[in-house]
Write a structure and sequence with these properties.
Keywords: Signal. The protein is α/β, with parallel strands linked by helices. It folds into two domains: 318 residues, Glycosidases (TIM Barrel, Alpha-Beta Barrel), CATH 3.20.20; 132 residues, Galactose-binding domain-like (Jelly Rolls), CATH 2.60.120. Helices cover 21% and strands 35% of the residues. It contains eleven helices and 28 strands. It has a nine-stranded mixed beta sheet with strand order 15-14-17-12-11-10-1-13-16. Strands 2-3-4-5-6-7-8-9 form an eight-stranded parallel beta barrel. α5 runs parallel beside α7 and α8 packs parallel to α9. The protein is globular, with a radius of gyration of 25 Å.
């Protein structure tokens, strides 16, 4: 679809009421018990964040760069040129998108009806020349286009004349392949998955030598769609009908069509879609792109906002969904099996033996039922355990209806004893339209809250602050003003040995870059604290203490991001895990 939004008729009363409901204690909504099981012994393939794609999500100015930098952006789809939407063939926009490493998907149809006032027809010469002009422009400017889309949602735009779309597709396909036989053609971009319609299209394409290189469609019902079932069905049908299955892509999910309920901002529904897209990878799914729900059609007020990840007022602040996709970007290593009651709490999980970390995303897509969830971890690998324990930290994000979410809330953080390589944890009740991010790491040996430690510094202001999102409710800031400023914390290590050193730090727009020194020896890489409001774990690797007792952790300012307004540093907690 072109961008569509929640209808403007939503009254202020409804919006305020929705916000109030979203902030009520979970006990105010009837809770249902459910279980999510993670089995680390069942490998589901390499983690790739395939659902981290966006429609019209990045423009020449918006959203703020700090929101882009912290994400894994895999695909961006849109127009080569457009009066209102981002123009991906505009050098500023192209370079900004290309810098993310995303695959660029271009619609060849943009502007055609504006120029000719109708869909292709007749002798098709105008249509073929129109497509060729975009191909020539890509060649002249050395634009790297991953795939070319022959039309968008033809089931709507060619309603009653799908034969006209088939010929339109065939003509564009032939022009693209004559230009470059290796170019990827993406189609049919149906507005909804329809089994009969998809098979008819493929049958036509097989007979007319215009089978797409990527088979694409949209999943926009507003509830968790059966993406797994759709992808498996069409794959099996192709195998049974003499067509070699091509890669699949859902190029709009959770976007237009969810009228009046702001599901575009719903992180619980996002987890359900991410999980189902990821589980479809075994059927050939390679990309999933979030639909854009914030503005309607060619709304002149359109500003790119990473498809509801940026707040709708400034496009510079994170919504609740931004934090979800931030943690999704950290889900590295291997995907592992999740089992859950379908249409209740959905889950996606990865584990990484290199970083010794497992990420589990859990989402409640319901707007009426809250869930008390048992998280069952089975066959936990040894690298996630320490002294027979795992550490589990769970953070929550909610549906902020396009407004900023100021950080995540830690709802659970503790060490749990592993029995027969398993752990069962009852999570706090998950409210409607919300999501949890669980991080599983080896059990912690020693933790030190920054606000409780003695410190010295190079003469700048050092303060303790209180904040609900901080571990223990407090943290510290050091108001550094220049390269070379430093702050030192003293920690007491009761037992000599080798430890993994982590720090829970806080990003914001006035932060600097620092290097850690442990007892005057540099450890790990420099860490840039510039970004949106975010508590995150910095891993400095292993540190060996030859003796027990007091040890010095020094953070030295080495510079700042060019977009940062200052050199400040902020600390929440330090963790030493015995190796």
């Amino acid at each position: 679809m072109m961008i569509k939004s929640k209808k403007k008729f939503i009254v202020l009363f409804f919006l305020v009421l929705t916000l109030l409901i979203g902030t009520l204690p979970s006990a105010a909504v009837a809770a249902t018990s459910t279980t999510v099981t993670i089995d680390y012994s069942v490998d589901w393939g390499a983690a790739s964040q395939l659902a981290s794609g966006y429609l019209h999500g990045i423009g020449p100015v918006y959203p703020n760069q700090k929101l882009i930098n912290s994400l894994a952006i895999r695909a961006v789809r849109g127009a080569p040129h457009h009066a209102i939407l981002p123009s991906l063939f505009d050098p500023t926009t192209y370079n900004r998108v290309k810098a993310t490493g995303a695959k660029i998907m271009i619609g060849t149809y943009y502007g055609y009806t504006d120029v000719y006032g109708a869909k292709p027809g007749g002798n098709y010469a105008d249509w073929e020349n129109f497509v060729q002009d975009y191909l020539d422009e890509a060649t002249q400017n050395n634009f790297d286009v991953y795939s070319w889309i022959t039309w968008n949602e033809p089931d709507l735009q060619f309603s009653g004349n799908l034969a006209g779309f088939y010929e339109t597709h065939r003509r564009a396909y032939n022009v693209i392949k004559a230009w470059n036989p290796n170019a990827k053609v993406q189609a049919p971009e149906w507005a909804v998955y329809n089994s009969t319609r998809m098979k008819d299209f493929l049958t036509y394409c097989k007979a007319n030598n215009c089978l797409p290189d990527i088979l694409s469609w949209h999943e926009l019902s507003g509830t968790p769609d059966d993406i797994e079932g759709h992808s498996l069905e069409i794959k099996n049908w192709m195998l049974a009908n003499g067509i070699t299955p091509m890669p699949l892509s859902v190029t709009e999910y959770q976007g237009p069509g969810n009228i009046g309920i702001n599901q575009g901002y719903d992180p619980g529904l996002s987890v359900a879609n991410i999980a189902r897209l990821e589980r479809s990878q075994k059927h050939g799914m390679i990309y999933g792109l979030k639909g854009n729900d914030q503005w309607q059609g060619d709304d002149p007020n359109f500003k790119a906002g990473l498809d509801e990840l940026a707040d709708k007022n400034t496009l510079a602040l994170p919504t609740g969904r931004w934090y979800l996709y931030y943690w999704y970007s950290k889900a590295t290593g291997r995907k592992v099996q999740t089992s859950q009651n379908i249409n209740q709490v959905e889950a996606f999980a990865t584990t990484d033996s290199t970083t010794k970390k497992s990420i589990v995303l859990l989402g409640n897509p319901s707007d009426s039922v809250s869930y008390t969830t048992t998280l069952q971890l089975n066959n936990i690998p040894s690298y996630l355990q320490n002294t027979g324990k795992v550490n589990v930290r769970v953070e929550s994000v909610g549906n902020t209806l396009g407004l900023e979410q100021h950080g995540t809330n830690i709802v659970l953080d503790g060490n749990y004893t592993v029995s027969n390589n398993s752990v069962s944890i009852t999570l706090p009740t998950m409210g409607i339209d919300s999501a949890y991010i669980a991080r599983i790491t080896p059990g912690t040996t020693y933790e030190y809250q920054a606000e409780s430690l003695s410190q010295t510094n190079s003469g700048k202001s050092h303060n303790v602050y209180s904040e609900a999102q901080a571990s223990g409710g407090s943290g510290t800031t050091y108001a550094a003003t220049a390269v070379g400023d430093w702050v030192r914390y003293t920690v007491n290590v009761p037992v000599a040995g080798t430890y993994n050193m982590k720090a829970l730090l806080k990003k914001e727009g006035n932060r600097g870059v620092s290097q850690l020194y442990v007892n005057n020896v540099a450890k790990g890489s420099t860490v840039d604290l510039y970004g949106p409001f975010l508590y995150f774990d910095a891993d400095y690797g292993n540190v060996t203490f030859s003796t027990a007792g007091n040890q010095t952790l020094e953070f030295r300012v080495t510079g700042k991001n060019g977009l940062s307004s200052s050199y400040n540093l902020a600390f929440d907690k330090f963790t030493l895990t015995k190796q």
